[in-house]
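Question: does this match?
>
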Amino acid sequence: MAKRKGSTGIEVALRYKRFSELRKQGLKVEDIGNIVGYDHSTVSYGVKMYNKNQSMYDKIIEANK
């Protein structure tokens, strides 16, 4: 079986939640990207997706505690 590349669901959920929390603190998307090591388009997408599907991501995080 081939080794899976990419992030698991819990990793993505936690990453998007972190992006969103930093954004709520008033940081710009570009600054968050520099802090966490992702480009600004990834951060922007993560914030948008977390805000859109927050309950789903929170359920994933809760299920993996």
